[in-house]
Specification:
Elements (H helix, E strand, L loop, with lengths): L1 E6 L4 E8 L4 E8 L5 H5 L7 E5 L3 E2 L18 E3 L2 E2 L12 H8 L2 E4 L3 H11 L2 E6 L5 H8 L7 H5 L5 E3 L5 E6 L5 H9 L2 E6 L5 H5 L5 E4 L12 H8 L5 E4 L1 H9 L3 E18 L5 E13 L5 E7 L5 E6 L4 E4 L14 H6 L5
Parallel strand pairs: 3-4, 4-6, 5-7, 6-8, 11-12, 11-13, 13-14, 14-19
Antiparallel strand pairs: 1-2, 1-9, 2-8, 3-9, 10-12, 15-16, 15-17, 17-18, 18-19
Helix pairs in contact: 8-9
Length: 350
């Protein structure tokens, strides 16, 4: 079925629908990963967004039941230059078309993704509608203006408290802001027993389990839309060590008195260089976020910096056990260079 992607600036891209055949709206972002499209599709941090892949062909190795980063995809749509209908890989179970149908994600192929990415780089991320038939600019904007991504955290967080890796020795409280499974897997691999809490859990409930530390996960959207999580973390700091990744980093930054701001087109992909202030070493990292921490108070130290744009990629408190990073040490997809940070968080680093 023929369809159009209409950006809020009026730009139009014609293509063909696949996956879940329907119309949708979302915030358009681009991601630069050459592989790992299944992990990206199921990353909850993409909730409410239309994601365009800069790599020209997607689906060439198919999809499977093992590379899932959540139980169900949260992105609104996937935009590609070309989809592969005949994947070749020994792990393949479904085509990208079949997978998106199963996950309820709209697909749009045949788009000039290079031109679309240039628009987003030049003018910043913007909202858009995927439509069928003849749709005027006015009607497209009416639909686009109905987009509301202020509740995406509560749409992706766990609905109930549960325990992951019952046999683990380290008692960790895990606040799920829309967590990727690989964060849980990496912590569990280091002998952590994780009590996973919804994003709106209170400090008293979390502390009742007497955790060794509190870990705050990644998640979608604006950290200022978090359901009371910043106040909860303020109450936890000083009582128990607190660590975080991505959205967790932003929540911690706000709880410590910093600010957050939105990037022009965000960081999405597995090739983002960050500099470690302690060693001077540069690591290539996996990232997926539109917001960053800024305006740090004097008692907070910046530990990692993005080499490309100079934005804050990590912080720690000078005297309290509080540390976080903006990038993803667990990757999935992306490089595993910074996996040692999980050892540091759990006190296992040499």
């Amino acid at each position: 079925m023929k369809a159009e992607l209409i950006l809020e600036n009026g730009a139009r891209f014609a293509g063909e629908l696949f996956g879940d055949i329907r119309e949708t709206v979302g915030e358009v972002v681009f991601t630069t990963g050459m592989t790992g499209y299944q992990e990206s599709i199921t990353d909850p941090s993409f909730a409410g967004q239309i994601v365009t892949m800069t790599f020209p062909i997607v689906g060439n190795y198919g999809t499977n039941s093992f590379d899932m980063e959540s139980e169900k995809a949260s992105m609104n749509a996937l935009v590609v230059r070309e989809k592969c209908d005949f994947p070749s890989n020994f792990r393949c179970e479904k085509t990208i078309d079949e997978f998106l149908k199963e996950q309820g994600v709209v697909g749009l192929s045949g788009i000039d993704t290079r031109a679309l990415t240039r628009i987003l780089r030049n003018y910043g991320v913007m909202r858009a509608a995927i439509v069928t038939g003849e749709v005027s600019d006015e009607e497209a904007m009416r639909r686009i203006n109905e987009l509301d991504n202020s509740n995406v955290i509560m749409q992706t967080t766990t609905k109930r408290k549960y325990v992951y890796n019952e046999e683990g020795k380290h008692n960790v409280a895990f606040i799920d802001m829309g967590a990727k499974k690989n964060i849980l897997r990496d912590l569990a691999a280091r002998d952590a027993r994780l009590t996973v809490f919804p994003a709106n859990a209170g400090a008293e409930e979390i502390l009742a389990g007497k955790p060794e530390l509190v870990f705050i996960s990644n998640g979608p959207g604006d950290p200022l839309d978090a359901p009371g999580t910043v106040d909860t973390v303020k109450q936890l700091i000083g009582k128990v060590p607190v660590y975080g990744i991505c959205m967790g980093h932003q929540i911690i930054g706000l709880a410590l008195g910093g600010k957050t701001k939105k990037l022009k087109f965000g960081h999405h992909g597995g090739n983002h260089p960050v500099k470690d202030h302690k060693t001077g070493r540069v690591f290539i990292t996996s990232q997926n976020h539109n917001y960053i921490v800024s305006d740090l108070p004097e008692d907070v130290i910046e530990t990692f910096t993005n080499v490309n744009d100079g934005t804050c990629e990590g912080i720690r408190h000078k005297t309290l056990s509080v540390e976080s990073v903006q990038f993803h040490p667990e990757a999935a997809p992306g490089p595993l260079d910074t996996g040692f940070l999980f050892d540091r968080f759990l006190g296992k680093e040499d």
